[in-house]
Amino acid sequence: MKKWIEKASHLIEALPYIRRFCGKIFVVKCGGAALVDPQQLHNIMQDIALLHFCGIRPVIVHGGGPDIGAMCKRLQIPTQFSNGLRVTDADTMEIVQMVLFGKTNRALVTALNQFGVKAVGLTGQDAAFMQSKKFIATSDVDADVDLGFVGEITDLDTTLITTLLAGGFLPVIAPIGIDEHGQAYNINADTAAGVVASKLAAEKLVMLSDVNGLYANIDDPETRLHVIKAALVKTWLNEKHISGGMIPKLQACLHALDNGLSSAHILDGNMPHSLLLEIFTDQGVGTLITN
User: Fold this and answer.
1) pLDDT band at 134; cut points 50, 70, 90
2) What pLDDT is stored for residue 156 in this prediction?
3) Any residues with CB less than 8 A from the CB of 5 and at least 6 apart, and which?
């Protein structure tokens, strides 16, 4: 009987959060190895289904880096990264479209539908809602590297997304942008999630990845930061304390916070139920970034 009472107490702990966030939009970015492991993918989609049925309105933006890398390897297409961004030539762009929407997006939509959620898969090409252009290198990216068909979002029309949400559907977005000439672009999923969250005036942006937050000392697991201010994150980025794939994640979080969001989270998608533990408990399991 005691264990059942403990379970009930966990539900009671979640009650104020369910009440607070009911009807709010959460943008959840899914990426990393968790999307390759079928069981991990199942667990994450199960958690998102629970959010949906608690009255929260999730919007998923997903990556697919490991799957894209694996397909490129199978087809003997070289892979190169520059500051966390995949160099995308014409052959790689074809793989990106095939894998992101044809494989990863389908897996997420199918899993959600099995939990009773009416999930709908999209790319930015649908209704041309994610207008994009070629990414122009800045001081943050090696200017000597031609990133190819890596894009940046120039405009995002939320009409399609909000129409789906109003109908009770859950949008699952593969970050493939398009320009006025019909050219497709590979948009970094973290960056896309930040823009989507900002344009939707979401309550939260949640980054599910392979890391469980930020650390004061990356070599010391005991120094994970439960909460960090956006100003300190900006300082760390400016002083080059952050590297690799964490750069676009944090830039996306800052973009969202600078455009009205109240909080952003970085969680380990490989940890069972990390999303629920972060959202519905007092302690949390990742890093919360606030202004």
Assistant:
1) very high
2) 97
3) none
81 closest CA partner among 96, 65, 94: 65
Instruction: Provide long-range contacts, Cβ within 8 A and 24+ apart, for 111-116.
Output: 111/41, 111/42, 111/45, 111/46, 112/45, 112/48, 112/49, 112/170, 112/172, 115/45, 115/46, 115/49, 116/49, 116/53
Q: Is the pLDDT of residue 258 over 90?
A: yes
Q: Return mean pLDDT, the chain.
A: 89
- Residue-wise pLDDT for 54-75, tens only, equals 999 999 999 988 889 889 999 9
| d(C-alpha 90, C-alpha 156), whole Å | 24
Angle at CA of residue 177, ends 173 and 182, nearest 5°: 130
176 within 8 A of 97, measured Cβ to Cβ: yes
Q: What's the pTM value of the predicted model, to 2 decimals?
A: 0.92
Whole-number Å distance between alpha carbons of 83 and 105: 25
CA distances (Å), 58 to each of 8, 101, 111, 216, 241, in order?
25, 19, 15, 30, 32
Written as six digits, the tokens of 242 are 């952050």
Q: Is the pLDDT of residue 243 over 80?
A: no
- Tell me whether strands 214-215 and 224-225 are parallel, antiparallel or unpaired: antiparallel
Which tokens belong to 225?
A: 């930061």
Strands 214-215 and 176-178 turn out to be: unpaired
Domains belonging to the chain, first-starting first, are 24-290 (3.40.1160.10)
Among the listed ranges 15-29, 149-163, 212-226, which one has the minimum average pLDDT value?
Answer: 212-226
CA distance 230 to 262: 11
Q: Which amino acid is at 159?
A: T
Helix (H, G, I), strand (E, B) or coil at 182: coil
Report pLDDT for 213. Answer: 82
